[in-house]
Design goal:
Layout (H helix, E strand, L loop, with lengths): L1 H17 L23 E6 L18 H7 L3 E3 L2 E2 L5 H10 L3 H4 L4 E4 L3 E6 L7 H7 L3 E6 L16 E4 L5 H18 L6 E7 L12 H5 L9 H6 L3 H6 L4 H22 L10 E6 L19 H4 L3 E4 L8 E3 L3 E2 L3 H9 L21 H4 L3 E8 L2 E8 L2 E6 L4 E6 L16 H15 L8 E6 L2 H9 L4
Parallel strand pairs: 1-8, 1-9, 2-11, 3-12, 6-7, 6-8
Antiparallel strand pairs: 2-10, 4-5, 5-17, 9-10, 13-14, 14-15, 15-16
Helix pairs in contact: 1-14, 6-10
Length: 465
């Protein structure tokens, strides 16, 4: 029982020791110990559905992220960052509440006879990241192109301005960002700084070819289709049985990542007081592309949907160009932002402040275990527990357990569980079951939204109906 725990902890400590010096960038301010933290501008960029291994700055063969590659040289890059879920609603709810999906309860969005979009509503007892920054004196702005995160579900708690686009492309986001920056420029000051959250939707299926990038990578073939045909005939089962045609949608997907990179490169350097700003770039989850017999996301918790990019640029570009392999998650962003801005960090936060309290490694990271959970489809509920390079997977509806060594088997092809005595993994199983028995801190509500014919058609094309 204890052998696996000791083995997992040894691997964790070994990996974190390498990143120990890197994490010194989070050691606080340059002023006196009792001096109030500064209020740097905060920019949070989330690109929907981006696999870490499809980012050029993380070794991908295609240069999908030329601007972000330059940005990474001014930032700390976390190579083992993970989401808490494999689809948007629970993932972003975790980011903004600082608690896991089982604690905030925002896990379901479904339809009732194709007439209503049923979604849970975040309990307003949570002090969200935006609310915490607002209490600290920040003006708060949100621009979101994923309609699952519309204002009425509660994610927008604490935003002075929150513009939602209905599953739109970066072009609409670009226009809204420019208008928002004009407002920010007029209001920003050191005494009343700003928090800007921008959420791109583009890389999400059914994938639209973005030029000139698509043309650079795509090899024309007999079965080439335009965007409308791809959207109209998007069928997960088809690509699972016609994998030779998968390259077409991967080319489209990569081109959309490149398009978002281009967009960010246009406006991010223009934000007020950019050099003083705390800037974070990440994704809510990845995309499967048949790595484990799943095409998109939400249906499991393998690394292709859980491992996400994470770049954090500190004010002044401190420690830029460094890399950390510490096990971190989106759940850590709230406490870290709060620590760096002086905002309130509620006592119930489950994430870790990545900034050590003193020079050296944050002790809590040394033995940390990261929990993930997804039940986008009630017939397929998955949970994961990561500790260093060990990953325990549990598919609840089938009572199936798996254990992977991500150091030796990053593609998660060799389940080691059958080779070990049950007693060796029992402690980890108990930890995971304990997480699943945890009730929401504050129970979510629910709403039903009538679907127009246009929205119904659009949601069907995205695989939601």
């Amino acid at each position: 029982m204890e052998k696996v725990s000791r083995r997992m902890n040894r691997l964790t400590r070994a990996g974190l020791a390498i990143g120990c010096l890197i994490l010194l960038w989070l050691s606080g301010c340059d002023g006196a110990p009792n001096e109030a933290p500064p209020k740097p501008p905060v920019v949070l960029i989330v690109i929907d559905t981006v696999r870490d291994d499809h980012c050029g700055f993380d070794g991908y063969a295609r240069q999908t992220t030329p601007f972000l590659a330059k940005f990474a040289r001014q930032s700390v890059r976390f190579t083992a960052a993970h989401s808490s879920a494999s689809w948007t609603l629970p993932s972003v709810a975790t980011l903004f509440t600082g608690v896991s999906p089982t604690r905030h309860g925002m896990e379901l969005a479904s339809t009732e006879q194709d007439q209503q979009l049923l979604s849970q509503v975040l309990n307003d007892k949570f002090l969200t990241l935006a609310e915490s920054l607002k209490e600290r004196g920040y003006n708060t702005y949100g621009i979101n192109a994923n309609y699952h995160l519309q204002r009425k579900i509660g994610i927008a708690q604490g935003f002075d301005y929150y513009k939602i686009h209905r599953y739109s492309t970066r072009k609409k986001v670009d226009v809204t960002v420019e208008k928002t920056l004009e407002i920010i420029r007029a209001a920003d000051s050191e005494s009343q700084p700003y928090f800007l959250y921008v959420h791109y939707f583009d890389p999400h299926h059914p994938y639209k070819a973005q030029e000139p990038y698509f043309g650079q990578w795509h090899v024309p073939g007999k079965k080439d289709r335009d965007d409308q045909e791809v959207a109209r005939r998007f069928d997960e089962k088809y690509y699972l049985t016609h994998r030779a045609e998968l390259a077409d949608i991967v080319d489209r997907y990569d081109s959309e990542i490149a398009g978002c990179d281009e967009s960010i490169g246009r406006w991010l350097p223009q934000v007020p007081r950019f050099d003083e700003a705390l800037v974070i770039v990440t994704a809510d989850h990845g995309e499967a592309f048949t790595d484990h017999d799943n095409l998109i996301h939400g249906g499991d918790l393998y690394e292709e949907v859980l491992h996400v990019p994470l770049l954090i640029r500190l004010p002044g570009g401190r420690s830029g160009g460094t890399t950390s392999d510490a096990l971190v998650g989106l759940i850590d962003l709230y406490p870290t932002i709060a620590a760096l801005t002086g905002a309130t960090a509620p006592s119930y936060l489950e994430g870790l402040d990545l900034r050590p309290a003193q020079p050296g490694l944050n002790p809590a990271l040394a033995g940390r275990r990261l929990f993930a959970h997804t039940r986008h489809d009630p017939s397929s509920m998955w949970s994961a527990l990561l500790n260093g390079k060990q990953k325990l997977l549990y598919r609840q509806n089938r009572e199936t357990w798996m254990l992977f060594d991500l150091a030796a088997d990053p593609a998660e092809k060799n389940d080691r569980l059958a080779t070990l005595p049950v007693a060796e993994t029992e402690a980890a199983r108990r930890d995971l079951r304990r997480q699943l028995l945890t009730l929401p801190l504050y129970r979510p509500g629910s709403i039903g939204q009538d679907l127009s014919e246009g929205l119904k058609k659009q949601m069907k094309s995205l695989g939601y109906l």
